[in-house]
Specification:
This protein is α+β, with helices and mostly antiparallel strands and 397 residues long. Helices cover 32% and strands 19% of the residues.
Length: 397
């Protein structure tokens, strides 16, 4: 099975990732990882850090001549803020020495990990919590998960995403965009990305995109922040990934965990899960038929490509619900952990909204789950061997 581990702080020298379990022969270059790292910075409403943080991955091991060699893959992602920011971060997050002369952060932000992290680990300075709990950590996750994405691509499996809503502006029902989305999906899920990435807010509707930019601009003036909803879609998935036989092998649960593991994500939906809860069964369940090649198909995809914890061959559709970012220009009330006095929160540089970025991170975490399920069913030591197993499967012909 695939495993990965990340390390590093937001304003430390670098973020580190280790990926283990990848079979040999999977095409991998720094360019493909850097492409998805750049996509993580997409979106109107990003903060000042985006102006100088240009992510470039370094691959230290596990790859030879642009292909994986089955050994652990070591990745390093330097934090430009460590050397280019003028706020003295190298000293604030110094590895050696002591805390003399360092101003402690003692005002926890509501909605952030600040207070509970400091209480859990016994810190009298919230800075270590801020730096590790930061969404900056998702950059190295995108890098690690892009390797899994490369494996899936060798089998025609594609992952795409787009934003459905930011704050008050967005799509209210799947019916309003389903035809446009499904036409794109005939080309594969990456066609969704090709269109969404052209939008400042990663929406596939130009009018909604413009309205959303205006909404974000208005909210920024008021010193507030916005959350939203996005959709991740996986195409080319064979039936039978995952299992119904035990709770932790159900793919729906694994996908939900993948979304909720991303900072600030507070809800997840598979298929039309929320709308289906208020519909009669006759309007929910996807009827089955045989196509001319005697392959089982569904007439609809309300289930989002999953039945009984397993893929059914239809596109996987997962939606993530992100809360507004807790760092606000307009301060909220909090309590100083040193003095116990009520005070307004301090401002840490942040975005007005990062829903577009979250959608690209969600692509990455979803790809990891699907790759693990794929290896569980078709796994082998090398890509060539996996392809033989896959193409000889009765599900794939």
């Amino acid at each position: 099975m695939l495993r990965y581990l990340t390390s590093g702080e937001s304003h430390g020298e670098a973020l580190i990732g280790i990926v283990e379990g990848m079979p040999s022969g999977v095409p991998l270059t720094t360019e493909v990882i850097n492409h998805h790292l750049a996509r993580r910075w997409l979106g109107f409403g990003r903060g000042g850090r985006a102006k100088f943080e240009h992510d470039l991955i370094h691959i230290y091991s596990g790859v030879r001549f642009s292909k994986t060699i089955a050994s652990p893959i070591a990745l390093r992602l330097d934090n430009a803020a460590y050397t280019k920011d003028k706020s003295g971060w190298p000293h604030v997050m110094s590895i050696d020495g002591g805390a003399e002369g360092i101003e402690r952060v003692t005002l926890p932000r509501p909605g952030h990990a600040d207070l509970e992290g400091a209480r859990k680990y016994g810190f009298n300075d919230i800075r270590p919590v801020i730096d590790r709990a930061s969404a900056r950590e998702t950059a190295i996750r995108v890098a690690c998960c892009t390797i899994a994405r490369q494996l899936l691509k060798q089998f025609g499996i594609e992952i795409g995403s787009h934003v459905l809503r930011i704050g008050d502006v967005g799509i209210d029902s799947e019916d309003t965009y389903m035809d446009q989305r499904d036409q794109l999906l005939f080309k594969g899920a990456e066609a969704i990305n090709d269109l969404a990435d052209q939008s400042q807010v990663r929406m596939i509707d130009p009018e909604l995109s413009r309205a959303c930019v205006e909404h974000i601009t208005e909210i920024k003036r008021s010193g507030d922040s916005l959350g939203g909803v996005y959709e991740v879609i996986v195409t080319g998935v064979p039936p039978g990934l995952g299992s119904y036989v035990h709770w932790d092998r159900r793919l729906g649960g694994q996908l939900a965990q993948a979304i909720l593991s991303i900072q600030a994500q507070k809800g997840v939906e598979i298929g039309n899960g929320i709308e289906n809860s208020s519909r009669p069964g006759s309007k929910v369940h996807d009827e089955i038929f045989l196509d001319p090649s005697n392959n089982y198909q569904r007439r609809t995809n309300h289930a989002g490509g999953l039945e009984g914890g397993m893929t059914n061959g239809m596109p996987i559709i997962v939606r993530g619900y992100m809360k507004p970012i807790p760092t606000l220009i307009k301060p909220l009330e909090t309590v100083d952990i040193e003095s116990g006095e009520a005070q307004p929160t301090r401002y840490e540089r942040s975005d007005v909204t990062s829903v577009p970025a979250a959608s690209t991170v969600a692509e990455a975490t979803v790809s990891w789950v699907i790759a693990n399920a794929f290896i569980d069913k078709y796994g082998a030591d090398s890509l060539d061997e996996m392809q033989k197993y896959y193409h000889s499967s009765p599900h794939t012909g």
